[in-house]
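ok new one. same drill as before - C-alpha cells go in, u give me an amino acid for every spot. 347 of them this time. try not to just spam alanines like last time pls lmao
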C-alpha cells in the first residue's frame, strides 16, 4: 500500500511498513565493489547528522573495517544542499554522499542525485527506499513536542494537539524555522491530514494566535534551548534527541501526541562524484546490521527489521504510539501548500 493512500499509521503497519519482519542473514558485500572502493581510498560525506553521536562512530567503524578514509563535512541541510548545488554548477563535484530528506529535494531537482539500490536494504520495507534507488532510509525520525520538566509539572503536560491551544502556552512555545517534514511544515500537514482541511485550518489559526517563537536553527538547537529553560515547550523535535539528552540528565521529556509525524533520515549519492564506489560501500556498511546497530547504540532508531532500537518506546508501534509517515515524495507533493500556510500564519 502506498503511503499517500494511508491515513493514520499505527505502528507503521498499515502501510506495509512493519519493522518486525523475520530476520534475514547478513548479505555479503560484492568483492568487486570492495576492491573498487579500496582503490579510491576515500570519499566525501556531506552530512547534516550530529557528528559526535553518530557520524564519527560510523566513520571510525567503516575505516577500521575497510581501511577507507571518511572525510565528513557537517552543516545544516540548507548549507549542504547549496554547497553541492554550487559544485554541480561549477562542474567541480567534491561530494560523494549526502544525507537528509530536506537535502534530497533541491539536489534531485538539480539532477545531481545518482541512483543506487543497496543490497543491504533488500529486506527494508518498501516505503523506506525510493523505487529507483534515489534514496534509502537509514533511521526513523519521529517529530514530537517536548517539555522542560523543571519548568512544567507532569500534570500540565499536553496530551493532545488541542492542549497546545490552552492560554498558559501562549508565548511559551518554540519551533524550528527549517522547512521540512520534521518541522512546522510537516506539523501543518499532519494536522490537515488528521483533522481535514476545514477543521485543520481552524485549529492552525488558533495555534498561530499562541505566538510560537520561530527559532532559526535545526531541531537539535531548538531542543537545547528548551533544555536551557528558554522555552518550556517546543514542537517538532526528534524524540530520540530528547531521549538521549534525558539519559544524560537533562530536564526534558518528549510527548506522544496522536498521531506524531514520522520523518526519515536517508542516504543519497551524488552523480558524477569522484569516489562513487567508496561511497556505495559506505552505504552498504551503514545499512547493514552492523552499521544499523552502531546507529541504534548511538540512540537513533534503525530502519533494519533485524536491529532493535536501544529504547523501543521511541519507535511507533503497538503499545507505544501512532505516527503518520511523510515520505520525501509525499512531502514534495504538498510542500507548496503547507509552506504557504506556515508563511501566512506563523512567520
Amino acid at each position: 500500500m502506498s503511503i499517500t493512500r494511508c491515513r493514520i499509521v499505527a505502528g507503521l503497519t498499515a502501510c506495509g511498513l512493519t519493522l518486525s519482519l523475520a530476520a534475514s542473514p547478513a548479505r555479503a558485500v560484492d568483492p568487486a565493489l570492495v576492491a573498487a572502493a579500496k582503490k579510491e581510498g576515500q570519499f566525501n560525506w556531506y552530512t547534516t547528522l550530529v557528528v559526535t553521536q553518530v557520524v564519527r562512530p560510523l566513520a571510525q567503524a567503516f575505516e577500521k573495517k575497510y581501511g577507507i578514509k571518511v572525510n565528513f563535512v557537517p552543516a545544516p541541510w540548507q548549507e549542504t544542499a547549496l554547497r553541492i548545488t554550487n559544485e554541480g554548477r561549477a562542474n567541480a563535484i567534491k561530494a560523494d554522499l549526502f544525507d537528509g530528506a530536506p537535502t534530497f529535494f533541491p539536489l534531485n531537482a538539480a539532477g545531481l542525485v545518482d541512483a543506487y539500490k543497496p543490497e543491504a536494504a533488500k529486506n527494508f520495507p518498501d516505503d523506506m527506499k525510493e523505487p529507483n534507488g534515489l534514496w534509502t532510509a537509514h533511521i526513523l525520525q519521529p517529530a514530537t513536542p517536548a517539555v522542560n520538566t523543571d519548568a512544567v509539572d507532569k500534570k500540565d503536560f499536553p496530551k493532545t494537539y488541542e492542549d497546545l491551544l490552552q492560554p498558559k502556552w501562549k508565548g511559551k512555545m518554540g519551533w524550528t524555522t527549517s522547512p521540512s517534514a520534521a518541522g512546522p511544515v510537516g506539523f501543518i500537514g499532519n494536522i490537515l491530514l488528521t483533522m481535514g482541511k476545514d477543521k485543520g485550518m481552524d485549529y492552525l489559526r488558533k495555534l498561530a494566535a499562541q505566538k510560537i517563537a520561530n527559532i532559526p536553527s535545526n531541531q537539535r538547537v531548538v531542543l537545547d534551548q528548551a533544555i536551557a529553560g528558554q522555552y518550556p515547550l517546543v514542537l517538532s523535535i526528534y524524540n530520540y534527541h530528547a531521549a538521549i539528552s534525558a539519559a544524560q540528565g537533562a530536564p526534558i521529556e518528549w510527548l506522544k501526541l496522536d498521531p506524531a509525524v514520522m520523518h526519515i533520515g536517508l542516504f543519497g549519492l551524488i552523480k558524477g562524484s569522484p569516489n562513487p564506489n567508496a561511497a556505495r560501500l559506505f552505504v552498504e556498511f551503514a545499512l547493514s546490521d552492523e552499521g544499523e546497530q552502531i546507529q541504534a547504540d548511538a540512540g537513533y532508531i534503525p530502519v533494519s527489521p533485524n536491529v532493535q532500537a536501544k529504547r523501543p518506546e521511541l519507535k511507533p508501534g503497538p503499545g507505544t504510539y501512532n505516527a503518520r509517515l511523510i515520505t520525501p515524495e509525499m512531502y514534495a507533493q504538498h510542500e507548496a501548500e503547507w509552506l504557504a500556510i506556515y508563511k501566512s500564519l506563523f512567520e
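The chain is about 35% helix and 20% strand. and btw The chain has two domains: 13-19+26-140+263-320, 142-260+329-345.
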